[in-house]
Design goal:
It is a single chain. The protein has about 220 residues and is α+β, with helices and mostly antiparallel strands. The chain is about 40% helix and about 25% strand. The strands form 3 sheets. Strands 1, 4, 5, 8 and 9 form a 5-stranded mixed β-sheet that branches. The longest helix is centred in the first third of the chain and has 82 residues. It is globular. It starts with a helix and ends with a helix.
Length: about 220
């Protein structure tokens, strides 16, 4: 009987020790896992949050700087474009000359040279005022170009003027000693009082056949009408 009790006590003690050991191991394992998961995550979260904030701040700063530089560059570009924008050709930015030619007969070539620093548009056709004439000579409609004649600085445009009839059929002829050329604007209105253009000292004979072409970019085209 004593032997039996001893074995039972030994078994119970062994089981108790085993259970206690198991509980201790479980508790230790749980504590280690909890600590290992919590501490690194907290540090990682802190670093990630800090790193993210830094990146966002720098990115915003870079974007702000880039935008500012780009904006300034755009303003400069617009300013350059604005300063070089084309204008209307007038007596203020051109020089007008008149030359009598031998062919075709009874014709004159008007030349307008852009003396300004900007490109200018030669709209429409010139209004010619010989002597004290009040009426503007008609234009040859078929001479109208497909696009407005445009003059870069230093370039010239041309208009051909038929002064009188070659067969003498014109009427009301007289010799003019002065000539004024009036330009048109974008709306094809005549602007200003005109630019005085020197004529030959002996004057220029004109009659009812007087007419002019549109402003053209080629002198041969201007004299072909």
């Amino acid at each position: 009987m004593s032997s039996t009790l001893f074995r039972r006590r030994t078994a119970l003690l062994t089981a108790g020790f085993a259970a206690a050991a198991s509980l201790a191991l479980t508790a230790c394992g749980t504590g280690e896992d909890t600590g290992a998961q919590h501490a690194p995550n907290t540090a990682a979260d802190t670093r990630a949050a800090s790193g993210t904030d830094s990146v966002v701040t720098v990115a915003k700063s870079n974007r702000s700087t880039t935008t500012s530089k780009t904006h300034k560059g755009t303003k400069a570009s617009r300013g350059t474009k604005a300063s070089s924008a084309a204008v209307t050709c007038t007596g203020a930015n051109t020089k007008v000359t008149a030359q009598t030619v031998t062919r075709p007969l009874n014709h004159m070539l008007l030349t307008v040279k852009n003396t300004g620093s900007k490109t200018c548009y030669l709209y429409g056709y010139p209004a010619l005022r010989f002597q004290d004439a009040q009426a503007v000579p008609p234009v040859v409609e078929d001479s109208q170009p497909q696009a407005v004649t445009t003059l870069s600085p230093g370039q010239s445009g041309y208009a051909g003027v038929n002064l009188s009839s070659a067969d003498g059929s014109g009427t009301g002829g007289y010799t003019a000693k002065t000539l004024s050329v009036i330009f048109q604007n974008r709306d094809l209105d005549f602007i200003g009082s005109g630019v005085k253009v020197p004529l030959p000292s002996k004057g220029t004979y004109i009659d009812s056949s007087l007419r002019t072409t549109y402003w053209l970019s080629d002198p041969q085209d201007a004299l072909s009408w």
